[in-house]
Write a structure and sequence with these properties.
- This protein is an alpha+beta fold and about 260 residues long.
- It has 2 domains: about 60 residues, no CATH class; about 190 residues, Cyclophilin-like (Cyclophilin), CATH 2.40.100.10.
- The protein contains 6 helices and 11 strands.
- Strands 1, 3, 4, 5, 6, 8, 9, 10 and 11 form a 9-stranded antiparallel beta sheet that branches. Strands 2-7 form a two-stranded parallel ribbon.
- The chain is globular, with a radius of gyration of 19 Å.
């Protein structure tokens, strides 16, 4: 019975009912082992067991976010506003750890248009408890989550639970072969759709991510991505996995151009 409860607690904690960012299986396997060991201790008392966080807040947050779908003309207009004469659509991310250059993949048109519109201030968005804004969403944010040798994540405009622009977008899979190599740029999950603004970049190859997340670009140099992913983390209490950089890695700007 206690073993079943521990497994259920693990599923709720790390899969979640609302937004879900990628988890490193190796790190989380250790967490599960610790939970199971505690649950199988003969004198363990249920009264001392910590209840898993309830999904209600995540479900409410997801339900409140409509699914935004860009029309063909809207996508064309967003991309036409990007300067440059090259064939590739490129997002240049300037961070305090160095520059990251992401070539966007237009096989995922909703993800690309949404990211470009938010990065360049072409669409109005609203974070939780904030006024509406058309400022470039990613400028001034941080890579708020970084998992050793796995991913770096950004796009939370207020720092509140699973925050975003006020909508979700359709989860696309046409470009998920990008997960076959490190440096894939992708949307995190929001229920059965993709998030509105939170994205991650992979530090290693992981094709399994293609079953749940929406890739829409390839980023380089990998050395910068890995340096952010592997930087020292803030210590955590209990059996959690450290994923918050000890020294915040800021994004000074995101510039989108057409380049070769």
């Amino acid at each position: 019975m206690k073993r079943d409860l521990a497994i259920a607690a693990f599923a709720v904690t790390f899969v979640g009912a609302g937004c879900a960012a990628p988890r490193d299986p190796e790190l989380e396997r250790g967490v599960l082992k610790a939970k199971l060991a505690k649950a199988e201790t003969p004198d363990d008392d249920d009264k001392g067991s910590e209840a898993p966080p309830g999904p209600a807040s995540a479900e409410a947050a997801t339900a409140a976010r409509p699914v935004k779908s860009y029309s063909g003309s809207e996508i064309s207009g967003i991309l036409a506003a990007v300067g440059g004469a090259g064939k590739d659509l490129v997002a240049e991310i300037q961070s305090t750890q160095g520059a990251i250059r992401c070539t966007l993949d237009e096989r995922a048109p909703q993800s690309v248009a949404n990211f470009v519109a938010l990065a360049t201030g072409q669409v109005e968005w609203q974070a939780q408890g904030r006024a509406k804004s058309k400022a470039p969403l990613y400028d001034g944010l941080t890579f708020h989550r970084a998992v050793q040798d796995f991913i770096i994540q950004t796009g939370n405009p207020s720092g509140r639970f699973n925050d975003g622009p006020g909508w979700r977008i359709t989860r696309e899979t046409a470009a998920n072969d990008l997960f076959e190599a490190p440096g894939a740029l992708a949307m995190i999950e929001d229920g059965d759709q993709a998030h509105g603004s939170q994205v991650f970049i992979t530090a290693r190859r992981d094709p399994k991510l293609g079953t749940k997340y929406a890739a829409f670009g390839r980023c380089e140099p990998l050395t910068v991505v890995q340096a952010i992913a592997n930087a020292e983390k803030k210590p955590v209490s209990g059996d959690g996995s450290p994923s918050v950089p000890l020294n915040p890695v800021g994004i000074t700007s995101v510039r989108v151009v057409r380049a070769n």
